[in-house]
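Could you join me in thinking about how sequence relates to backbone shape in a protein? We need material for that, and I hope you will provide a protein of your own picking. Once you have written the record down, we can walk along the chain together:

…
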Amino acid sequence: MSRSQALLLFLVLVVGGGLAIGYITLPGEWYAGLVKPSFNPPNWIFAPVWTVLYILIAIAGWRVWDYGLTRPQQFWWAQLALNFLWSPTFFGFQQMGLALIVIVLLLIAIIGFIKTTWDSERISALLFMPYLLWVAFATLLNASLWMLNAG
């Protein structure tokens, strides 16, 4: 497989998978009825932000695969699995507490990826920085939604 074919495969997997999961688990009436924190962004912001992030995630995954970096690849696959698990857990099963556990684990996997690529593949680490910031914000949002709507 050529490098460009591999990159395309990573993009299709990550962007396509992320958008498909987002489409399947649209927020819906349940989410609309939740009490939201004051810093809750408008719904329209999520699709463009996640599309950009998924492109960055795919490129970073392709780079560590291309360089044959085993430990970062393990963190990369872990974060992707946790990322794809969060929406069905939160929106599909409406389990905000369990989704909070998933997103904290996702945050840990992202940090692990950054730490294991920082010295050997800095570009991949930097590609994950916006993702880290967004997921940290999403973790705060998930926790706030859970606390405001528990009971």
In short: The chain is about 80% helix and 0% strand.
